[in-house]
Amino acid sequence: MNKVDRDAGEPQAALSWLGMPGLTAYFAMLEVGRPRPGDTVVVSAAGGGVGQLAGQIAKLAGSRVIGISGSDEKLEWCRRIGFDETLNYKTSPSLAEALARLCPEGVNVFFDGTGGAIHDAVMKNLAVAARVAIVGRVAVADNIPGDDIGLRASSRLIQTRAVVQGFVVYDWWHRREEALQRLRNWRSAGRLQFREDVLKGIENVPDAFLRMMRGENRGKQLVAL
Ligand SMILES: NC(=O)c1ccc[n+]([C@@H]2O[C@H](COP(=O)([O-])OP(=O)(O)OC[C@H]3O[C@@H](n4cnc5c(N)ncnc54)[C@H](OP(=O)(O)O)[C@@H]3O)[C@@H](O)[C@H]2O)c1
Questions:
Q1: Which of 29, 74, 114, 210 to mutate to test the pocket of ligand 1 (most atoms within 8 A of CB)?
Q2: How far away, in angstroms, is 48 Cα from ligand 1 center?
Q3: Rounded CA separation 211/196 (Å)
Q4: Among candidates 41, 133, 45, which has minimal Cα distance to 88?
Q5: Angle at 212 between CA 98 and CA 168, to 5 degrees
Q6: Over 90: is that where the pLDDT of 58 sits?
Q7: Which of 101-110, 175-184, 210-219 is predicted with the least confidence, judged by mean pLDDT?
Q8: 8 Å CB contact between 24 and 131
Q9: Which residues line ligand 1 (CB under 6 A)?
Q10: Which of 32, 61, 89, 207 could form a disulfide with 133 if both were Cys (CB 3.0 to 4.6 A apart)?
Q11: What is the CATH number of domain 10-171?
Q12: Separation of 114 CA from ligand 1 center, angstroms?
């Protein structure tokens, strides 16, 4: 259980930018992705609760950020909050080729919130010494507990010496306060934007879940009781 600091902002922020999505974006980007000034960073599920923050944190680190989503509306939001470029995986005829055009020097950091075909397309474009944070696999979520089936990236990993690391936010819970303080500082300095998608009433919980799985949520999906 976590105590909510009412002075830190709206209490519901504890479920969004000051909660699991914020901590996931913060630690997976900064500790696994380790973006540097001038790096090219790709974020999948970019318009969602985690992705929108992950992209902004990489921008704060001085990197160039490319967001991938299946919604033009979400991608417009990403550009509004500072993402440099965006790609719609539903309308790009070849995501791998579109990425190659946008990242001729390759992708230095891949923040993967989806797995699946988007993962495969980015893995084909890794730069030497890239860092890949495996955060989510929503694109293959109906394949539980089956294996992910897709590209075997071993030759690309040998060529690039990239590091792929799975991520679980609770491994970083002992450093929660440090992350929350930095997130608060960025937010109060106007350097971190966030949007939530709030439905009202407990009867809307199943709908909220399905909206998220269909990609219809605009920002972090919450239900107000
Ligand atoms: N490892 C951890 O500790 C940890 C912690 C928190 C969250 N996560 C993971 O991080 C990811 C993002 O979480 P979130 O809370 O920010 O969720 P979210 O982005 O609000 O919702 C998931 C998004 O995934 C996209 N999506 C759905 N089906 C897809 C498909 N078949 N192919 C590609 N994209 C698809 C949709 O956006 P589009 O409109 O772009 O398709 C949808 O909005 C999730 O995979 C979640 O499980 C992991």
A1: 114
A2: 6
A3: 13
A4: 45
A5: 80
A6: yes
A7: 210-219
A8: no
A9: 20-21, 24, 45, 47-51, 69-71, 74, 113-114, 116, 118, 135-136, 138-139, 167-169, 212, 215, 217, 221
A10: 32
A11: 3.40.50.720
A12: 6
With vertex at residue 51, the alpha carbon angle to CA 45 and CA 55, rounded to the nearest 5 degrees, is 125
> pTM of the predicted model, to two decimals?
0.95
Total residue count of the chain as it appears in this document: 225
Question: What would you report as the CA-atom Rg of the chain, rounded to the nearest whole angstrom?
Answer: 17
Q: What is the pLDDT of residue 6?
A: 76
Q: For the chain, what are the domain ranges?
A: 10-171, 195-225
Give the pair of three-digit tokens for residue 131: 């860092």
Interval 188-216: pLDDT, tens? 999 999 999 999 999 999 999 999 888 89
d(CA 223, CA 206) in angstroms, rounded, equals 10
Dist. CA 136 → ligand 1 center (Å): 6
User: Which has the closest alpha carbon to 46: 130, 131, 136?
Assistant: 136
Does the N-terminal peptide bond of residue 206 adopt cis geometry, omega within 30 degrees of 0?
A: no
Contacts of 199 (CB under 8 A, 6+ apart): 207, 208, 211, 221, 222, 223, 224
